[in-house]
Write a structure and sequence with these properties.
single chain, alpha/beta, eight-stranded mixed β-sheet, eight-stranded parallel barrel, 16 helices, about 25% strand, globular, binds ligand 1PR
Length: about 525
C-alpha cells in the first residue's frame, strides 16, 4: 500500500497528484497505524522544522515512523521529509528531529540569495533506483533555506552546488530522501518518482557534472479575472488597463494556457487573480478550481496571487489572510503572492518605527508555510523628481529623464491593481517585506507592463541590490534579448512575461535557446 504522510502543512496535493498521474492509488496516513500498514511511504514536507516535529508528535506519528525506518521499509522523504530524519535543525533550536540519520540541518551561509529557489543539477555519488531513467544532466526543483549535513558520508546520494556544495539527497538501504521536489520537477521528477515506486534496479547516471549551477528561471504569468459575461479568462493589460474597446481582453482559458506553458518549458507558472481585491477569493471558487485542475497535470511550481487578506463576509464571519492562503495551498498552489496587503503591512511597520507587529499576512503565512511560500508582488509606478531631497523615498538617478528633464525618480507602490498610489517606494517595500519573512519578490512595473519595451532595468537593479531574497523581474518583455539583458545587468534569478507568451510572439523555448549560450537554463 502506497501511503503518504500528511502532517497538514503546505501543498501535499501536488505530491498526491504526481503519484496519481503515475497510476498509483495513494492512502493518506492519518494515524500511526496507517504508517504500520504502509508498504511504501512517502513523506513530503514544507513549512518549518519545529512546527513539523510538533505536529508529528501531536499526531502520534513519531514512534511508528521510527519503527518503519528501523525496519528498512521503502521510504521517500521530500524536502522537510529529508530534514526530519536528522537530529536537529538550526531552523528550530532545541527541537529534536527523528534522529534516524546522524547529523544536523544548517542554514545556507555567505553572499547568496536565500531561499535557494529554482532548478539546479545534482552529482550522483552512488547508484539508486531514483536514477533508473536519468543520465545525470537533468535539473530538479529546489526551494529551501536549510540543507542537511550528514555525519556519515556513506549516506550521501547526491550533492548540489549553491555557493557551497551541499547534500541534496541521501540513501540508506530502502530509505531515500531528497531536498529537491520530484513532484515539481516536470518529466524528470516523474521519472524519479517512478524509479522509487517500481523499486527499480539501482543505477548511477553516466554523466557526472563537475559542478552544478542554479538555472535562471523563466516564468509565465496569467492574469485571471471574470470577463463581462462572467467567464474566467486570462487577460492582459497595457499598463494595467485590461479593457479594449470597453471589453475585458480575453487571451484564453487559464487551465489550458497553463498546460501549454508547462509543455513549452515554463519553469514556473503564476496566476494572478487580478480582481481579488474586489471579490473575496474564497467566494471566487472558480479560481480555486483552476488551481485544482492545473495542479493535476502541471508538475512545475504554481504561484497564486490576488485577494490574500483578512475578510469579513455579509454574515459577519471573518476569514484571515492565512485561511485564504491555506485554501490556495490546499488547492494546489506552492506559493502565494501578496500585493496590496504587503503595502499596508509595510506602511504599518514604518508608522511603528520599523517594528513588525507579527500580525501581517506575510508573517503569519511564512510562520506556518515557510518563507519560501510567500512571494510579495509589487506594482510600482515611476515618479520623477527634480532632486533626491524632494521626497522621503529611495530616489534613483535615471538615464531616462522625465518630461521636464528631471534626472531623478522614485517608484511609488500602488494597491488595488495600480488604482491607488501609496507613499512607500518599491525599494523600501522590498526591504521591509524581506524582514517580515517574504521569500521572494515579484517586481512588476506599471510603466512597462504590456509595452514590449523591455524590463525597467533601473528599478530591477535597485530592488535586487536592496534584498538578499530572490527577485523576479516582470513587465515589459518584448524580445528574447530583454531576458539576457535583465539577467546580465541586474543579477536577478528569474524573469516573468505574459503578453508575448499569450500572443505567441516569442515562445518560451526561443527565450531559453537564446539564453542557453551564455547562461544556465533548464532545457
Ligand atoms: O493586491 O494582493 O489582491 O493582488 C493582486 C495582484 O494582481 C497583484 O499581484 C497585481 O500585480 C495583479 N494585478 C492587479 N491588477 C492588474 C492589472 O493588470 N490590471 N496585474 C494586475 C498585474 C502585471 C503582471 C504582468 C507583467 C508582465 N499584471 O502580472 O503579468 O507585467 O506583463 P508583460 O510581459 O505582458 O509586460 P492583491
Amino acid at each position: 500500500m502506497l501511503t503518504l504522510l500528511d502532517y497538514g502543512a503546505g501543498n501535499v496535493r501536488s505530491v498526491i497528484n504526481a503519484l496519481e498521474h503515475l497510476g498509483e492509488t495513494v492512502h493518506v496516513a492519518t494515524t500511526g497505524a496507517d504508517i504500520e500498514r504502509a508498504t511504501r511511504l512517502v513523506f513530503p514536507g514544507v513549512g518549518s522544522f519545529g512546527t513539523m516535529m510538533q505536529t508529528l508528535h501531536e499526531r502520534g506519528f513519531v514512534a511508528p515512523l521510527r519503527r518503519y525506518l528501523a525496519e528498512d521499509r521503502p521510504f521517500l522523504g521530500i524536502c522537510l521529509g529529508l530534514q526530519a530524519l536528522f537530529e536537529r535543525s538550526e531552523e528550530s533550536p532545541g527541537v529534536e528531529g527523528l534522529g534516524v540519520l546522524a547529523g544536523n540541518v544548517a542554514r545556507f551561509r555567505g553572499d547568496l540569495s536565500v531561499p535557494h529557489i529554482g532548478w539546479n543539477g545534482f552529482v550522483a555519488h552512488q547508484p539508486s533506483p531514483l536514477f533508473a531513467e536519468l543520465d545525470g544532466r537533468e535539473k530538479v526543483y529546489f526551494v529551501h533555506s536549510f540543507h542537511v549535513v550528514p555525519r556519515d558520508p556513506e549516506v550521501v546520494l547526491t550533492t548540489t552546488d549553491y555557493g557551497q556544495r551541499f547534500v541534496s539527497a541521501v540513501q540508506r538501504g530502502n530509505l531515500v530522501a531528497t531536498q529537491f521536489h520530484p513532484e515539481k520537477s516536470g518529466a524528470v521528477g516523474l521519472a524519479i518518482l517512478r524509479g522509487f515506486l517500481r523499486g527499480a534496479e539501482p543505477r548511477k547516471p553516466e554523466h557526472v557534472p563537475a559542478r552544478t549551477q542554479l538555472a535562471k528561471r523563466i516564468i509565465a504569468c496569467l492574469d485571471v479575472r471574470a470577463n463581462d459575461h462572467g467567464d474566467l479568462v486570462v487577460t492582459k493589460g497595457d499598463q494595467y488597463d485590461v479593457r479594449e474597446e470597453g471589453a475585458v481582453r480575453n487571451l484564453g482559458k487559464p487551465v489550458e494556457l497553463a498546460r501549454r506553458y508547462y509543455e513549452e518549458g515554463a519553469d514556473e507558472i503564476t496566476f494572478l487573480n487580478i480582481t481579488g481585491f474586489r471579490h473575496f477569493p474564497l467566494r471566487d471558487m472558480p479560481m480555486l478550481e483552476v488551481l485544482r485542475q492545473t495542479s493535476r497535470d502541471v508538475f512545475v511550481p504554481l504561484t497564486i496571487g490576488g485577494g490574500i487578506r483578512d475578510y469579513t463576509d455579509e454574515e459577519g464571519r471573518t476569514y484571515s489572510a492565512l485561511e485564504v492562503a491555506s485554501q490556495y495551498f490546499r488547492s494546489g498552489a506552492d506559493k502565494v503572492s501578496i500585493g496590496s496587503e504587503a503595502v499596508t503591512a509595510v506602511e504599518e511597520v514604518l508608522r511603528n518605527g520599523g517594528r513588525a507587529t507579527g500580525r501581517s499576512p506575510i508573517e503569519q503565512i511564512a510562520h506556518v508555510y515557510g518563507n519560501q511560500a510567500v512571494v510579495v508582488s509589487i506594482d510600482p509606478r515611476r515618479v520623477y523628481v527634480e532632486s533626491p531631497e524632494d521626497v522621503p523615498h529611495h530616489v534613483l538617478e535615471t538615464a531616462f529623464p522625465g518630461p521636464r528633464g528631471e534626472r531623478y525618480c522614485w517608484y511609488e507602490c500602488t494597491v488595488r491593481g495600480g488604482r491607488e498610489g501609496r507613499p512607500v517606494d518599491a525599494v523600501t517595500l522590498a526591504r521591509v517585506c524581506e524582514q517580515l519573512g517574504a521569500g521572494e519578490i515579484l517586481l512588476n512595473c506599471i510603466d512597462r507592463d504590456g509595452t514590449n519595451r523591455g524590463f525597467d532595468l533601473e528599478l530591477v537593479a535597485a530592488v535586487k541590490q536592496a534584498v538578499t531574497i530572490p527577485v523576479i523581474a516582470s513587465s515589459g518583455a518584448g524580445v528574447v534579448e530583454h531576458f539576457s539583458e535583465v539577467f546580465a545587468q541586474t543579477g536577478v534569478e528569474s524573469a516573468l512575461a505574459a503578453g508575448i507568451f499569450h500572443r505567441q510572439e516569442v515562445p518560451i523555448g526561443a527565450v531559453k535557446a537564446h539564453l542557453a549560450g551564455s547562461l544556465d537554463v533548464r532545457v
